[in-house]
Amino acid sequence: MILGICAETCFLFILPLFLYDGLCFTHWMITDDGLMIKSVPDTPYHMVQPHSLVQFLDQGRKLDSIAHMRGFIKEHEKKIHLHENADDPELETKIRKTDKDCIMGGFMSTSKDAFLLAYTLGKLVEDHEILASVKSSDDKQNPKMEPHCTYDLQFSMYAFEHFPSVQQRGKLKIIPEAAFQKLLPLNYAITEFGNHVAKALEMKPTNDSFLRLAALYWRIKGDAPKAVECFRRALHFTTKKMQARIQFDFGNLVHRAGYPSDAIVLYQLALLKINDAVIHVALGDAYALVQNRSEAIEQYEIAFSMDPSMKNAQIKAAALKCDRKLITAMEEQHKNLLDTIKEKNMYNDNYEAIKKMEESAKENVADLGEKVQSALIYDYFTYGSLPYSYCRSVSLSGRLVMQCTVSDWRSYRAVREERHRKLAPKYNAQSVVENFNDSHELTVFLEKLGSMKKMNMDDPTGKAVYPRKLLPSTTKLLEYYTSRNWPNKTLCESSYWHFPLSSPEFLPQLFLSPDNKGFKSSDLLGKYLGLNDGEEHPLPWYPPVCDIHISDQPPSAIFKLPAVRAAATRGPSLQFAEDKLRAVFLKIMDDKVTEADIAQRIGTLMKYKIGPQWLVYNLAALYWRIVGASSEAITCLRAALQTEPERYADVALVQLVQIVLRSGSSYDNYLNDAAVLLNSAMHIDPNEPMIHFLMGIVRILQKKHVTALAHVRAAVILDPFFQPAVAVLRTLKCLNKNEQKLVGERLNLRCCSQMEPNVYCFGIRNNQCFMMSKKGAFMGTTCAVNSKNKEEDSCRRAFSFAPFILPINLNGAKDSEKKVQKQLIKHAKTAQRKPNIGVSDEIPLDYGAEESLRKIRKMTAPSTASFFQGEILFTKSSDLKETEVIDSWEMDVPVDKIIIPEERLTLTHVPERRKMVAFDIPLPPKLPLPSKDQISSGIPYVSLPAQRLPNSNFCANIKMSLAILREQSTSTWLSVTAKGVNLGEFIDFQAPVDLSEDFEPVCPELLSPSPLLTLDHLPAYHLRHQFIHYKPEKGLTDAFLKLGKEKERVEIFLFLDKDGVHWSLSTASALYWRVKGDAVNALKCLRQSLNSAPPDMRDVALVSMANIYQQAGLLHSALITGGFALKISPKLVAIHFTLANIYVSLEKYQHALMFYYSTLSMQSNFEPAKERIRTIYCFGENPIVPS
């Protein structure tokens, strides 16, 4: 009886071992309530020395420290995010645009000249009256005298001799203060004034009035040292009444000479006796120059309160207030930056400490091999001896231990599962649970789970992450990553070792989350299991095995690929463990539950068919990837693809690719199989950046860097925040900038035999190979090497000269060798090809997802800088007959590439209109010129003097300088009436106009334009949206109103005939848009006109187009466009005058003179042409009169 009871008791305790179908547990833990003991699989307490109490306590201390330090890291992360959010690179711009003081003050504070102004307290009336009492002889024979203040005055206590400006008065410099001439009597020349004062000083050298007037003379002349000498003597001999005024004038002099500190003292002394707004403004200027903004603002406000007409004082005060606000904001930004750096350094220190602590803790934990041995030994004692496994006792360190080996893991697991199925029915698991007192928790859990069983929930609960909508800030970041300037040389050099190129030993560890598809994995693992936040799954916990969920149907073609089959035969190994995915796995539940708990939840979801099973199997595969069990992971992925073979199969395929890259390399062409899997994933969802990124990694491993660059760029375009892709893109672009490294990456050393140890091939297993001959040339060869060849290791050596392979000597090679060498050069050049040329076609993106495809195509399309276009050659004589019609123009050889800016142009980048030429096409070798007859006919209308004297009568009354002429925007327009067209035939100007709506003459887009007719090849057309210097042409307002016969508003009804919109109406519409300053719409109308106008009428639109391009700064495009108009109508004034103005803007004054004279030959009374001829003649350098 006792024996029977013992047998039954032993059976009850042993039976759970028979029902267990996985690993054994070596760590048991008491629950927080102290009532239960639960097992913990894959625990950090699975010690190397489980018998050592010291090691156990040490491990506990280390794990507590790691948990404590992780809390610190989270705090640092929060602070870093707060600091980064507070950082605003556009802070200054925002303040300047929104603050009322900054708006009023503008950028005045950045100009020092605004605070170096000359001031006066009014005319010196009394001094002039005293001077008038001194007779001045008008002896024209004697030379004019100047008022030198030479009265002997070695030192004066009134002359501020201690000032640095006075002590160094010989070095003072000021700009001539011509504005003070208004203080002189009318019709009083400066030379006469100086002579008069000089004679007065001869008579009375100590008269303070004469000394003040002498100082005024020298300030007008710009001689500061002599003015100081006069002020010294004037201060010494003046009366108390005039002392304050002299102090102010003296202070203004040293202020403008660069001594504002001295000027402040003099201004303050003057204010003690004269409380004038001008003195307050001058004092404010001096304070501003010494950076005392508070005092300067106070002085400006006092001046404005005393004299509200001094608007400049109010503006200066606002500018300085704006400066103070900017300085305060920038100081806060700087402090925030320092705090950010401090937090990041502390974060890095703690992160490194945690890594060291984890490594130390891992040293105490048994390795994966020991854990696998424990599981195999457990199976041996549970199921007995199993096929495909062999367990034996061996002697180790003088003691017997058991070791087991497995020859075929897949077959072994199948046999073990079969044994388990046979044992399970012998005893109902439910009855066993009911016999244990500690199983109540599991019983309650299973009862609550009843309503959720077999719920598939196949539809996503949220919106898919991709395609991601690009915000303006994201677009700017994307343009930055795809620009040619990123990364720069400094970034490449600093990050080269931090971001090495991917290799079989350095592969990314990624998981395509089902959350990207709109599912929520955390709800599936928590809410749908009836588990609250932070609540654990009841014991026992098992890993999620997928074998029993595989159907009997044969595997799909994917699992028959050699690389996949090779990976499936691999046993568990630390070599294949993807440790970095552990953080991703735990993050699913926000790091609130353990890895083993999540694994059991996955197993429960599989067992009771809760939720989308393809998602559950993918999570199970993720678990097995983390622990390094490739074959188990592939089994789960097979179950996932059987459940969902189409809609969400890309999630499983992305995991399968990474398993193949790690554990399928025993098959030679495993990279090709990986590419096949990724292509299948792209067919399913081309919106996922991870798929494109992994395809780029595969191409890198295949040494196909150009194709890899295209795929990685596509990943960044789909998601600029996908950091793994950004890092690889940076590495590839840096590598692309270093041609030698790129060639070195493409060439691989191969050893064919002992006789041929140095053979170089493109790619790892490519047969395009070459070797060096005795003469130093490279010859093509073939070399088929078996990876298992024993000779391979014996002759392997460093690849030393591959980076210098490009300079191949073609002259010394045979014809047969040249073909191979040319092919090598072709491959090398392909590797060095710019990343934006011809790479987009290599991405298999033709699988739908139009939004993402358009985005990628837009960003990867070749820039217009790579377009080739023809030059315009004016081959015919300029002496064209009046009746001759030009129907076409000639195109010649390709010209230089058009330079289109990578980023949008701003006034900061291009502050001057003339600098827009940098983005224009080069000038043609033959420039448009008028005929000699036209030039000679126009010369008589402006008779030039024999000698060019700037002070001559011919040059005396010129209204403009050469600089004004060059920068002046002159609007020209050729009316259609000049070509004999009556607009009244197309527009009823007498009909009443309905003003209830604001109609505008918007020209329709061309359906079938002719790029040659509309000159679309010119850079100016491609930059039409960035005409930052183009302004409304108000000068054309009258011309536009005349179209409507003096009406205030013209409403243009587009007249449609059999050829569409009439070209004359398009031209008139362009005039409207030019008045409004809308170059884009104006050019749209002009292109419409060019496309539909008769050949002899196209010059009307061409003149307007040339004038728009000129005012936008695209002078070369303007000249070429005007040249076309000249060929069509060589005798129209507007064309000649427009071309002349373009040449002036190009500073080609000789060409400009020719066209101004030809203009006069057709309209002799055209005064603007005459005025410009005089300006060029008088101010130009050696102008040659055309003959």
Automatic annotation (TrEMBL):
<dbReference type="InterPro" id="IPR019734">
    <property type="entry name" value="TPR_rpt"/>
</dbReference>
<dbReference type="InterPro" id="IPR011990">
    <property type="entry name" value="TPR-like_helical_dom_sf"/>
</dbReference>
<feature type="repeat" description="TPR">
    <location>
        <begin position="277"/>
        <end position="310"/>
    </location>
</feature>
<dbReference type="GO" id="GO:0015629">
    <property type="term" value="C:actin cytoskeleton"/>
</dbReference>
<dbReference type="GO" id="GO:0030041">
    <property type="term" value="P:actin filament polymerization"/>
</dbReference>
<dbReference type="GO" id="GO:0005737">
    <property type="term" value="C:cytoplasm"/>
</dbReference>
<dbReference type="InterPro" id="IPR052630">
    <property type="entry name" value="TTC17"/>
</dbReference>
<keyword id="KW-0802">TPR repeat</keyword>
<protein>
    <recommendedName>
        <fullName>Tetratricopeptide repeat protein 17</fullName>
    </recommendedName>
</protein>
